[in-house]
Write a structure and sequence with these properties.
This is DUF4043 domain-containing protein. By secondary structure, this protein is of the alpha+beta class. It contains eight helices and 23 strands. The strands form five sheets. Strands 13, 14, 15, 16, 17, 18 and 23 form a seven-stranded mixed sheet that branches.
Length: 455
């Protein structure tokens, strides 16, 4: 396939790189969840799944050596080692295409050619960003749930004490990390400590419902089986169900579940600061000097109306924060408005729709780009017809139809995302560390507010 097979009006656009520039502009047109990911190359010829091992540290030594034991070849020392944990990354291929009929398009051919390239770029960017968002919240790739996992509520009140509790979302309750750092399914020998209502239980099984009725974004409704009977008071509909290893979910006014959010529970700066404190307790590194907080504009509007936030900015209404309300930094947090934040319909009509901000630190997400994307083993292929931008390949195919009129403009990306865990960063290593598997992000749930609400 050579460039000489394209209409003359398009050859210059291809040769001078206009297509690549249009495609790249689309990919870089907005900041999203993918921007927080650590980029890695997924090697070729190893299969579709890669298991990576993250090593922990050794506990600090605070007890002096006994001089009388400083003998023999070991000097009285007993060898110790560091712990490990594993996470799995799977890659898939994503892509789309658009056709251009060079005859029907007429005199505007070159312009539409470039517009198609830009449209493909925007679609590729948005697609990859949404995949990143879904992994962050849902965690399908790591087996232990995303940053919404392990945090749900009882859906149906028990009629009597029993070992089966119906919950709104079983994500985050299905697997645990073994002593060797591997993800294993929960069982009678590998149970998970879970607080149901006000008491602690050991969950030994999580079973999805045949018909999913979860209200959570991409949630999976089901039942949890416990090793001991759950009391009716604990198994009452609406009670919180939280795994001991669940990531932190913050709600205004200390609401225990999503369904408990009530009118007036909008985002406040104190909620954000509580999330920052949790990340700092785990010594999570910042992203270029600040934590990224992704939120939608209605949640951001609630923040602007928060009394503490307005007090902080009293007399500073001409600041860029108030004048533009776009990306801004305050108190170690970089607020990034996005239209990709998960939207959830109101559980209680009196309360309104639920909005979720996600506060992230460095390393919360890992993106793997397949090493052979854009590579061709076929000799004599015109490389000017394939552009590689940030791991995404744009392919322009010459007209192959009988009338030599239809050009195909396509893109594809081969890769995947993973959520690494930080179990080894326990209290023996970091005294202020939490017990969460996923420590590098915090979800903040709240109601939004509209432009007509009272200030």
């Amino acid at each position: 396939m050579g460039i000489e097979n394209f209409p003359a009006s398009l050859s210059a656009a291809i040769q001078q790189g206009y297509l690549a520039r249009e495609f790249q502009d689309g990919l870089e047109s907005s900041i999203g969840y993918d921007a927080t990911s650590d980029k890695e190359i997924f090697p070729a010829r190893i299969g579709e799944t890669l298991t990576k091992t993250r090593k922990g540290l050794k506990s600090p030594v605070t007890t002096p050596m006994n001089p009388t034991s400083n003998t023999n070849f070991d000097n009285g020392l007993t060898a110790s080692t560091w712990s490990v944990e594993q996470y799995t990354m799977s890659i898939y291929q994503y892509g789309d295409t658009i056709d251009l009929n060079t005859v029907n398009e007429g005199v505007g051919i070159a312009d539409q050619f470039l517009k198609n390239a830009r449209t493909n770029g925007v679609q590729a960017m948005q697609s990859r960003d949404r995949i990143a968002r879904n992994v962050l919240f849902g965690g399908a790739s790591n087996g232990v749930g995303g940053y919404l996992g392990g945090n749900t509520r009882v859906r149906t009140t028990l009629t009597a004490t029993g070992t089966t509790v119906s919950v709104d979302d079983i994500r985050g309750f299905q697997n645990v990390l073994s002593s060797t750092g591997q993800v294993v399914a929960i069982s009678s020998t590998a149970g998970m400590t879970v607080t149901i209502g006000s008491s602690s239980y050991t969950v030994t099984a999580a079973t999805a419902d045949s018909t999913n009725v979860s209200t959570a974004p991409d949630g999976v409704s089901g039942t949890l089986t416990t090793s001991a009977n759950v009391t009716v008071s604990d198994g009452t509909a609406g009670n919180a169900v939280v795994a001991s290893t669940a990531p932190l979910v913050i709600r205004p006014n200390n609401r225990l579940t999503t369904a408990a959010l009530a009118a007036g529970d909008t985002l406040g700066i104190q909620n954000v600061l509580a999330g920052v404190a949790a990340l700092r307790r785990n010594n999570v590194p910042t992203i270029n000097g600040a934590y990224n907080c992704y939120l939608d504009d209605l949640q951001l509007l609630g923040l602007f109306r928060d009394a503490d936030f307005k007090e902080l900015y009293r007399g500073a209404y001409q600041s860029d924060t108030y004048r533009h309300g776009t990306v801004f930094e305050i108190l170690g947090v970089r607020f990034v408005p996005t239209t990709e934040a998960p939207q959830q319909a109101a559980i209680s009509t009196a309360a309104g729709p639920i909005h979720r901000a996600l506060l992230l630190g460095q390393g919360a997400l890992v993106r793997g780009d397949y090493a052979n994307t854009g590579n061709m083993d076929i000799p004599d292929v015109d490389r000017s017809l394939l552009e590689l931008v940030d791991g995404v390949a744009m392919v322009t195919r010459e007209p192959l139809d009988r009338l030599k009129q239809i050009i195909a403009q396509s893109w594809y990306w081969i890769g995947g995302f993973a959520l690494p865990t930080d179990v080894t960063a326990n209290t023996t290593i970091i005294p202020t560390a939490t017990n969460s598997y996923l420590k590098r992000g915090v979800v903040i749930e709240s109601l939004g507010t509209d432009g007509n609400a009272a200030a």
